Amino acid sequence: MAAQSSVQTITHRIIERSKPSREIYLDRVNRAADHGPHRGTLSCGNLAHGFAACGVHEKDALAGDTVANLGIITSYNDMLSAHQPFERYPDLIRAAAREAGGVAQVAGGVPAMCDGVTQGQPGMDLSLFSRDVIALSAAVGLSHNMFDAAAYLGVCDKIVPGLLIAALTFGHLPAVFIPAGPMTSGLPNNEKTRIRQLFAEGKVGRAELLDAESKSYHGPGTCTFYGTANSNQMLMELMGFHTPGASFINPGTPLRDALTREAAKRALAITALGNEFTPAGVMFDERSVVNGIVGLHATGGSTNHTMHLIAMARAAGIHLTWEDISELSDIVPLLARVYPNGPSDVNHFHAAGGLGFLISQLLANGMLHDDVRTVWGDGLAAYAIDPKLNADGTVAREPVPPVSGNAKILSTFEAPFQKNGGLKMLSGNLGKSVIKISAVKPEHRIVEAPARIFHSQKAFQEAFKADALDGDFIAVVRFQGPRANGMPELHKLTPPLGVLQDRGCKVALVTDGRMSGASGKVPAAIHVTPEAIDDSPLARLREGDMIRLDADAGTLSVLVDDSEFSAREPVKVDLSDNEHGMGREIFANFRALAGRADAGASVLYG
Question: pLDDT band for position 364 (50/70/90)?
Answer without folding.
Answer: very high
